[in-house]
Amino acid sequence: MNASKPRRALVIGGSMSGLFAAILLRRAGWDADIYERVDVGLIGRGAGIVTHAELRTVLRAAGCDPSEDFGVEITMRRTLDRTGVLAGELVCPQTSTSWDRVFRMLREQCPDERYHIGKELQCIDDAGDRVVAHFADGTSAEGDLLVGADGFRSNVRADVLPAVKPVYAGYVGWRGLVDEDALPAPVHADVFEAMVFGLPPNEQFICYPVAGRDNDLRPGHRRCNFVWYRPAEESSELRQLLTDASGRFHALGIPPPLVRTEVIASLREASRTLLAPQLDAVVRLAPLPFLQPIFDVETPHMVVGRVAIVGDAAFLARPHVAAGVTKAAEDAMALANALRVHDDVAAALAAFQRERLPVNRRIMQRGRELGGYLQPHLLSPVALAAAERHHGPETVMSEIAVLDFLKDGRLSG
Ligand SMILES: Cc1cc2nc3c(=O)[nH]c(=O)nc-3n(C[C@H](O)[C@H](O)[C@H](O)COP(=O)(O)OP(=O)(O)OC[C@H]3O[C@@H](n4cnc5c(N)ncnc54)[C@H](O)[C@@H]3O)c2cc1C
């Protein structure tokens, strides 16, 4: 690379993928600016994140130190049956952190003058070896490379690969957080400090401890994070869930405060009848449960001309693999490494795509396999029966939120 004249990358999206990409590109000798649509800080988003060793490796490469106060250490996995009795246990050491914690670590590595807020990408002009980003406020920016890190409803992807659309998977993830000190002692003893599963028919409940507010890791100040996957047929049930009290339908996702009280009441009723009493208590005590419809997004290409697409913008895998942030980090790392090694940008982009396409496809496929039994109205009876083999306590505890399948070349357990 010509050290006297740094090349310039325009990174669209200032969340996980965007921060990883911009920081690592700068470390590879590029000039990189982030353009984020939201005009306030992104702190406060999301909930718990299960991490993997691979994520720590990339965080270190980005100048962050994940060895101190990174999250809550979890050793055990447990499954509770409907009556609250232990149905299985497995040792599986892992760290759970929060979206905020990772965001703050990364944000500190990105100079303020390189992080532009209130910049919504509208369209791209890709002309040979230059690329121009046009923003909704009428401004534009020019660079040698544009990185689409703008999430699963990516405008960048819509511009360069318009045929790729998110596909609803047929179920939603209900999420919520409960303060540790709100859990009654017997519930705390059974569910806190572990990753705990509940497995009603065609459903999956999972909870695990995460830091409290402002990354508070002191015992008594942490929180219990749950995700409960439940089928919701698209045209009727999902529509109801995403409709607020004024009758407005939020096709792209309903803001948590607008979820109707009847919808929350029926979630709590289902929790009482379907989950172990300890897990029911977690759902009941969560002050503001919210839901996210689960989608698949799979791009045929991660590179089009001088545009590279990373993170959820390229591949939105189902959360059962818990690979979203790790995948975003590794996409960014592969891109920066390729641009460090190859002076020719087109050759670097081709190398990046060769490395990341197969891995991301395997993660997508794994997510579909693990979530198959949550799609009873979409799969044939034969496919559903096959998917059921991922639903037993031992299998769930050994397969959910682990990346071993990437190491041994297997796609199914
Ligand atoms: C239920 C659930 C549980 C999960 N659990 C885990 C887990 O345990 N572990 C894990 O690793 N991952 C998990 N994930 C996934 C993880 O949260 C995502 O994969 C990750 O946050 C994706 O980051 P991203 O930067 O690619 O996209 P996003 O976080 O979606 O960021 C995209 C950014 O681009 C901005 N943007 C969008 N359009 C434009 C535009 N036109 N112009 C400028 N900016 C724009 C947005 O405002 C946003 O800031 C989970 C997800 C779900 C739904």
Please specify the SSE layout and strand pairing.
Blueprint (H helix, E strand, L loop, with lengths): L7 E5 L3 H12 L3 E6 L11 E3 L2 H9 L10 E9 L5 E13 H9 L7 E3 L3 E7 L2 E6 L4 E4 L1 E4 L6 H6 L6 E13 L5 H7 L2 E5 L5 E7 L12 E9 L2 H8 L19 H14 L2 H9 L4 E9 L4 E2 L2 E3 L5 E2 L7 H18 L3 H27 L9 H7 L5 H7 L4 H5 L5
Parallel strand pairs: 1-2, 1-10, 2-6, 4-12, 10-17
Antiparallel strand pairs: 3-5, 4-5, 7-8, 8-9, 11-14, 11-15, 12-13, 13-14, 15-18, 16-17
The chain binds flavin-adenine dinucleotide.
The site of flavin-adenine dinucleotide has 36 residues, from helix 1, strand 2, strand 3, strand 11 and helix 9.
Taken as a percent bin, the fraction of beta residues is 25-35%
- Global morphology: globular
The CATH superfamily of the largest domain turns out to be FAD/NAD(P)-binding domain
CATH architecture title of the largest domain: 3-Layer(bba) Sandwich
Please explain how this structure is put together.
Helices cover 33% and strands 27% of the residues. By secondary structure, the chain is α/β, with parallel strands linked by helices. Helix 1 (16-27) runs parallel beside helix 9, helix 5 (185-191) crosses helix 8 (277-285) and helix 7 (261-274) packs antiparallel against helix 8 (277-285). The chain is globular, with a radius of gyration of 21 Å. The mean pLDDT is 94. Bound molecules: flavin-adenine dinucleotide (FAD). Flavin-adenine dinucleotide binds next to helix 1, strand 2, strand 3, strand 11 and helix 9.
